[in-house]
TrEMBL record:
It comes from Paenibacillus spiritus. This is Prepilin-type N-terminal cleavage/methylation domain-containing protein. Keywords: Competence, Membrane, Transmembrane, Transmembrane helix. The keyword Transmembrane helix applies. The chain crosses the membrane at residues 12-31. Pfam families: N_methyl. NCBIfam families: IV_pilin_GFxxxE. InterPro entries: N_methyl_site. GO terms for biological process: establishment of competence for transformation. One of its GO terms (cellular component) is cell surface.
Length: 180
């Protein structure tokens, strides 16, 4: 009788099972990597939108901005500016509302975002010195800075309520034209 060399059915089935397990593990790894990359891409978009809003605010008249945020104690809410109009009259008094709608309620890649800009009063308030009478040589006079800078917090979130994503917050300063 002649003996034929080759793989048995059990060996073939065992190799197919091993290859299937390895391919499932690799598929799970790449799926996880894809979702992580997509999440980072969304965060990057939101950070860039926040920076864009901060840049827009820096290009506005500083006295109007200071009057709006510091004196008026207002905040810009993206939900107040939808469908090419802003519902609050104080927005129209200080800003070009047509442009403000585009800045506070942008649409990127078919996803709507809502941007809120609020004044950070706690950063502008004077802090008590650690020891009265002893001022450090590196101490910064906050009263001088306050007249040239307005600290703001820009928060970006997806406009749809059920998105479940955490908002992105960027803090920055709006500076007076005199020191730019």
């Amino acid at each position: 009788m002649r003996r034929e060399d080759g793989f048995t059915l059990i060996e073939v089935l065992a190799s197919i099972v091993i290859l299937s397990i390895v391919s499932l593990v690799l598929t799970a790894y790449f799926t996880n990597a894809l979702s992580y990359t997509k999440s980072n891409q969304n965060k990057t978009i939101m950070v860039n939108l926040a920076r864009n809003a901060l840049f827009y605010m820096e290009k506005q008249d500083f006295d109007q901005i200071k009057d709006f945020f510091v004196t008026g104690k207002h905040a810009l809410k993206g939900d107040d500016c939808k469908l090419n109009s802003c519902v609050k009259p104080e927005y129209a008094a200080h800003f070009n509302t047509g442009t403000l709608v585009s800045v506070l309620h942008p649409n990127v890649n078919g996803i709507e975002y809502s941007i809120d800009i609020e004044y950070q009063q706690e950063l502008a308030e004077p802090r008590p010195s650690p020891s009265p009478g002893a001022a450090s040589p590196n101490a910064i006079d906050r009263s001088v800075i306050r007249q040239y800078l307005v600290p703001v917090r820009v928060m970006v979130r997806q406009a749809e309520n059920g998105s479940g994503r955490a908002p992105v917050v960027v803090e920055g300063y709006i500076s007076d034209e005199e020191i730019r």
